[in-house]
């Protein structure tokens, strides 16, 4: 099964080209405040969409894993306030953070490996909120409630990381590479087995595959993806606090993924853009302090009306116009 | 470490466990029958606390109604949460029965909205109920001396709730329906029972228990922002540890988590959260269905 048709590949290339050219026309605020932000949070949402779409796991631990990466890079960062005794250069801190996130993803996978569906949702949520509470109460490593500040990121070709253009292009590159990585992985034997497990774990197990191992590996890969997002988010926020990985942040990533649509990895980024736009412009639509009510309502409407998100809604609109195309597609299965 | 200290910490743990049990038993009850993971359970707790307080405050201020303000607040809090629960079940959840993940997502959406609207209506200031005179102040307890009467009352109330639920589930017609529904909803419906109506009743009961927990919890400790998340989290952990849909399991889970939390805070304050999750992970590794949970 091809993940994307040639037409969709062409569309992807066009979108990427437009994204590359956008800095020519957009003001700096849009680059970092909307697009850059959508990209970095979209990466975390991508890890959730990957697990949900191809593994059938709705994991709420992805923000927590991003937090593990963020805290690792913050603790090891040379510019951190409060300064840490274990400061390294950013070029060592970032790989360490990604390793930590991958391991954390694997551990979450191990904990959750024997459970599915709704239990998985509950267990991962409990772990996520627990980690944030732990970070909040622990001073030795996490500096408690205040978190760790002044995480500026490395210089890229002599430019500070937080220069608008540098941040935008690095985020875009990382996001695009991870997106393509997901599309590649799901076509490998590993990815196909994973989808088999999603549809019928017993049958795949009977074929001789190690179901548990595949699940843990999927969580580790999702951990790596979330870790990349977590490092970039920490640079974007110039630091990390327990509340930035708490319940609200966890739910926000879920909201992005669900609004965009859990059916395809691109949904994560669509959802993240919609979320950022709403977050930024909610004040002009509705009471500025009631953003949460607005996002909650949008989320609720999406779940009630179109559980497969904007993506699914768009697809249905398309197929509603062309009922024949739908028949053809269902015919091939 | 003296014996007195050890007993006090354990007693603190048990009183906390009592509150956890009241809230989590409602969560477990709803899950047991409907397989609905109610992510808005913490919001129902908040609704109980806030509505209870808005009834309590004026009554407490006037000398004529001062004596029974708290009792009316309990009734109001329970009723408000139960009504909110019924609305949730009837408007949103009932018609998507069986789609567990979608139901969980709907309740997450509702919890975001409820928390934000409560903040808009009541503001973010912490508040606390004053216990009625009967339950106010200390009681003499052997060995440890003076101990908060209200906290002891919490344990008594949790026992009453536990026994009440046991009687309801095991000795009444509704209880028979609920237990049959847990095993096989379709057969229950085929027997001519109005299952959606039973579901609404169970949802009202479960939500009412969250509301009761809200008023009791807000009497023991002030309500501040984030309390809904804390009680949702606690309910999750308690039923994961104890076993879904089992009242006995919920009691065991609540005692384990409550006592572990207090002992953790007494022994290693900045790492105490880890203890709670270590228990959860250990239980999941050995018995994924929870201590008293059934497989399948």
TrEMBL record, chain A:
Cellular-component GO terms for this entry: plasma membrane
Species per Swiss-Prot/TrEMBL record: Aquibium carbonis
Subcellular location: Cell membrane
Chief location bin: membrane
Designated name of the protein: Branched-chain amino acid ABC transporter permease
Coiled-coil regions listed in the entry: none
Pfam families: BPD_transp_2 (PF02653)
Record membrane topology: Multi-pass membrane protein
Keywords attached to this entry: Cell membrane, Membrane, Transmembrane, Transmembrane helix
Transmembrane segments: 9-32, 38-57, 64-84, 90-111, 118-135, 166-186, 207-233, 266-286, 292-314
GO MF, any single term: branched-chain amino acid transmembrane transporter activity
